[in-house]
Amino acid sequence: MAQNKVAGPEIERLIQLLSKLPGLGPRSARRAALHLIKKKDQLLVPLAEAMGIAVEKIGVCSSCGTVDTSDPCAICCDAKRDQSVLVVVEDVADLWALERAAAINARYHVLGGTLSPLDGVGPEDLNIASLIERCQGGGISEVILAINATVEGQTTAHYIMDQLTGLAVNVTRLAHGVPVGGELDYLDEGTLTQALRARTRF
Amino acid sequence: MAQNKVAGPEIERLIQLLSKLPGLGPRSARRAALHLIKKKDQLLVPLAEAMGIAVEKIGVCSSCGTVDTSDPCAICCDAKRDQSVLVVVEDVADLWALERAAAINARYHVLGGTLSPLDGVGPEDLNIASLIERCQGGGISEVILAINATVEGQTTAHYIMDQLTGLAVNVTRLAHGVPVGGELDYLDEGTLTQALRARTRF
Ligand SMILES: [Zn+2]
Ligand SMILES: [Zn+2]
């Protein structure tokens, strides 16, 4: 069904781009665009600026794979964190969830996804080689696989476990408490903290 | 409950501003920010540009009150529209809805809200004086009050009706009835009664 254009091309383009954000459909994108235009000074101007700064400054940490304005990121550079523990997560959103929970004071490694042969995602598509390198570099005594309790997540965990065999690192995983099929980003802080405290040997 | 900061101040500010958009809460704002950062070239850069253009170019039409990149707006300047009919709406979103429906080929007048004494919204807070002026200017034969069928909307409609008394314009309002595709069982009694009273020959 053809959609009539309701506004000039500049507004239409703003609506079209906003509709690509997760959680916003075409209708809510129109509402968001209108809200931005109405709140020009309070919202549109600062958001345009924040996005411009993000474009300029935010990149991927070459060490852990998270996003930040510095490389290495603030977490990797934080000397107060336990340098001997790496928490392996699928996605930056999971790292954020663990940091929000203040569940652990260690460093991370962001895989960027899970193994999924059906989708053509192999080990070379994830940050697995760099994880092995970090562990081979020494100084890492424990790798915590904080990976979603999905089939793909657990397949990925097993693959990483195999790759780390022979290195002097303990590989652990999150305790039961993560619902089967559940995703970290949806869990409350208490559950995340408990799951980390009760982590078990892989 | 204090929320731990999970990322640098630039990312936190982006998340915080995104969370002010209608339809996005704190959680979905984080997802949106991460999505933007990951899709830097495909989404963040163009959206930042589109917002910058919006900041520079988009303003309020001094004639009808809608938002556009030109003043008067494209609709007010469109010579192919019926110049003798004004459609009065509460909000730009309503104008957009009528335009999407291609419901009428006329011009609009955006009130910018409804009368609401309890919220301190009086006639002087809405674009009512400018509506009267447009009608006094001549050339307008019909004013269609396309105002929401809420108590505030109908109060506003009556107020405008009173103000237009004595001018040579017909004031009409939208028909009440069963929405196209609507199911009787879901409609309130007022709508059903109105729809029956205004029944038309099949
Ligand atoms: Zn890092
Ligand atoms: Zn206009």
Question: Could you explain the architecture of this structure?
Answer:
Two copies of one chain form a homodimer. With 202 residues, chain A is an alpha/beta fold. Chain A has a domain at 92-173: Dna Topoisomerase Vi A Subunit, Chain: A, domain 2, CATH 3.40.1360. The first copy, chain A, contains eight helices and seven strands. A five-stranded mixed beta sheet of chain A has the order 4-3-5-6-7. In chain A, helix 1 (9-18) crosses helix 2. Chain A is elongated, with a radius of gyration of 20 Å. The N and C termini of chain A lie far apart (53 Å). At the A-B interface, helix 1, helix 2, helix 3, strand 2 and helix 5 of A face helix 1, helix 2, helix 3, strand 2 and helix 5 of B. One zinc ion (ZN) binds next to helix 4 of chain A.
